[in-house]
Design a protein that fits this description.
This protein is elongated. It has 338 residues and is of the alpha+beta class. The protein is built from eight helices and 15 strands. The relative contact order is 0.05. It has a 15-stranded mixed beta sheet that branches. A hairpin with a 4-residue loop joins strand 5 and strand 6. Among the domains are: 131 residues, Sandwich (Jelly Rolls), CATH 2.60.120; 91 residues, Serine Threonine Protein Phosphatase 5, Tetratricopeptide repeat, CATH 1.25.40. It starts with a helix and ends with a helix.
């Protein structure tokens, strides 16, 4: 019995696997159990197509232009969007060293100090601050660009200039490149060249001294006759005619009041003021006041019936007026019939 047990034990020992063989067997077993499954070849084209579509979508989104913010009609870079805001008067307040773009007119406004501007039908109005205007070259079809200031308007065909508006009816314009025309409130035009600086309101020039003609000069060698006293009858205060002076002062006051109403956008009040003054205005100011009324009907109130009727009456009254070019342009934009 013990002999049989011993034989069996020796036979089992002989069948034991040595350690190197055991490691080899374990390695083969692990390779079979943990080998990753190979994907089926039929899904490979689908995976490639899906990956290509996803990569293309991401690339298109990355390269597509981002929408540009527009505030008060001006385009603004997204990085400075918080530095531009619309005020209560429908104007745009621009922080210092920030630029905005009026794409339709080709104008870039670079604010030097905090500035306030507003887009209007006639042009871009500078209300307050200091800013540089860069205007792209204009064609005859596009017409001129107007920058409206408290002292008049600036007509531009493509150039660069700096406008200062103090908000109190005073300001200046300095031209850096090209040529601009400054038209003051009385319709007088002044052409500016690079380096020119003009301020408003312009000081009243003193009357020039009239030189005595040469043939009326008194010769020094000619003896003078005796001085004869002339009897001078003093005039009564009532003999002085103050009417021309009063009319001129009154007209200037009306223009000043009209400028204030324009800046505040009080167009109905401006119409009432002009209609009242046209009924009693002096002959030398009626044409200017009538022209201003037509502009408000055309560009601010946008009333074609009233504007066309007014322009026809104005041209009948002033057939060779000084505002014919502006009136023809306004009538064409309104489609007025002759």
């Amino acid at each position: 019995m013990s002999r049989d047990f011993r034989s069996a034990l020796m036979s089992a020992d002989a069948q034991l696997v040595d350690e190197p063989q055991l490691r080899a067997m374990r390695a083969r077993l692990d390779a079979r159990l943990f080998r990753p499954a190979k994907p089926s070849s039929r899904w490979l084209p689908v995976l490639v197509a899906v990956s290509s579509v996803f990569i293309g979508f991401v690339a298109v989104r990355a390269l597509a232009p981002q929408p540009v913010p527009v505030i008060g009609g001006f385009e603004v870079a997204p990085a400075v969007e918080s530095s531009v805001r619309v005020s209560r008067q429908a104007a745009v307040e621009i922080a210092a060293e920030v630029s905005v773009v009026d794409r339709s007119r080709g104008v870039t406004i670079s604010s030097i100090t905090r500035s306030t501007v507003r887009r209007e039908a006639r042009g871009i109005r500078m209300l307050e601050g200091r800013a540089t205007f860069d205007v792209q070259k204009r064609t005859e079809e596009n017409g001129v660009v107007r920058v409206l200031v408290s002292g008049g308007s600036i007509e531009v065909h493509g150039t660069r200039f700096t406008v200062t508006e103090n908000g109190t009816g005073t300001g200046s314009v300095e031209l850096h490149e090209g040529v601009i025309d400054f038209i003051d409130e009385n319709g007088n035009t002044r052409r500016m060249r690079p380096g020119d600086l003009m301020t408003w309101p312009r000081a009243v020039e003193p009357p020039s001294v009239i030189d005595t003609p040469a043939d009326e000069e008194i010769e020094e060698l000619t003896p003078l006759g005796p001085v004869r006293r002339k009897k001078v009858t003093p005039k009564k205060p009532t003999d002085i005619d103050w009417r021309p002076f009063d009319q001129r002062v009154h007209a200037q006051a009306v223009i000043t009041e009209l400028s204030t109403l324009r800046q505040n956008g009080q167009w109905q009040d401006a119409v009432r003021l002009l209609e009242r003054e046209l009924n009693r205005g002096a002959p030398d100011t009626r044409e200017r006041l009538s022209f201003e009324l037509g502009l408000i009907y055309t560009w601010q109130l946008k009333d074609p019936l009233a504007a066309c009727a007014h322009w026809k009456q104005h041209q009948r009254e002033y057939p060779e007026g000084r505002f014919d070019v502006e009136i023809d342009r306004a009538s064409q934009s309104l489609g007025c019939t002759q």
